Amino acid sequence: MRTPAPCIRMSAVVGHRGAAAVAPENTLAGLRAAAASGVRWVEVDAQSCADGGLFLMHDDDVSRTTDGRGLVWRMSSTKLRECRVGGAPVPSLSEAMKEARALGLGVNVEIKTPAFAEPERVARTGRAVARLLSEYADGVRVLASGFDQGALAAARAASPDLPLAWNVDAIPGDWRDVVDRLGACAVHCLDAPGNHGVIPAVLASGHGVGVYTVNDLNRARALWAMGVWSVFADDPGALVDKSPDAGVAIPGSRR
Predict the structure, then answer these.
(1) For 68-104, what is the HEC assignment?
(2) Rounded CA gap, 245 and 240, in Å?
(3) Which end of the chain is more exposed for a tag (fewer CB within 10 A), N or C?
(4) Nearest C-alpha neighbor of 81 from the set 45, 113, 50
(5) Residue 146 CA: distances (Å) to CA of 52, 103, 108, 111, 150
């Protein structure tokens, strides 16, 4: 069994894709909106393009969130930068990390890879994200997460001290085997009834749990009462003042 890396506990409310209900998702404007709301952590999505550049983007295709078209995986950095989201170029992951550092935000970077991606390219993406995050580890609280176990395993190999979380819509019966194999310190899952019965076991094992996407205060309170560490919210400002962190002046904690 692999010894988990030191685990950083995110705040009780995490801005989802920055602050997706308040500003364009996965943008520098979204990070600023999240910081203005008082939230301490944000989640962003990172993908690699054809030449290996790392950019913020949730979908495989840029058409939903930008004025461009095409698959991120097959676009050059130059072509991707020509796409505009909220009037600004698609930000690189490095730009986002610099902005987060200036704003004092912790960042959960979700490593995104398309279903059709070849395993070696998935691994390269995981390694690239991990190495970039390691460059900012002294100035930004960081956590890498993702659904693709290959990407997470590559991130772990590239940066053994990087905290990891495994993302899964439905927590499977072998969750403990997976998190131990990956050296993950937390599970991030969908707010779904099927997960609610498993969450206590994950927490009892000493692993953290984050739940997405939670935009209702009553749901957030029920999850916090269950012991959930973090909820991911599109409008973090609507929850942050009512969260267990309200009034607590510590930026984050490790165990």
Answers:
(1) CCCEHHHCCHHHHHHCEECCEECCEHHHHHHHHHHHC
(2) 8
(3) N
(4) 50
(5) 18, 24, 10, 5, 10
Instruction: State if pTM tops 0.90.
Output: yes
Half-sphere exposure in the Cβ direction for 79 (13 Å, CA): 16
Helix, strand, or coil (residue 15): strand
Tokens of 233: 């919210």
User: What are 134's two structure tokens?
Assistant: 């390691």
What is the percent of the chain with per-residue pLDDT over 90, rounded to a whole number? Answer: 92
Options 3.20.20.70, 3.40.1260.20, 3.40.50.300, 3.20.20.190; CATH for 8-245 is: 3.20.20.190
Tokens of 209: 């749990």
CA nearest neighbour of 60 among 42, 80, 81: 80
